[in-house]
Specification:
The protein is 24% helix and 22% strand. It is of the alpha+beta class and 63 residues long. The relative contact order is 0.36. It comes from Actinomadura violacea.
Length: 63
């Protein structure tokens, strides 16, 4: 599974960071960074939940 962020859509609300901090982080410029674009199996459920919870639908998954 691979996760991507659309930086033109993302408003850096941080919902995904709260749900899956091992995979997402906000940098010093308040931009979302995907720390692990290739999602480890043990974090897959949390990342799916984070993608579904994004208020701007800026995250996508490739399974």
């Amino acid at each position: 599974m691979r996760v991507r962020v659309d930086p033109l859509v993302c408003e850096a609300n941080g919902v995904c960071v709260g749900l899956a901090p091992e995979v997402f982080d906000l940098n010093d410029d308040d931009e979302l960074e995907v720390l692990k674009p290739d999602v480890p199996a043990e974090e897959a459920d949390r990342v799916r939940h984070a993608v579904r919870s994004c208020p701007k639908a800026a995250l996508t998954l490739e399974e």
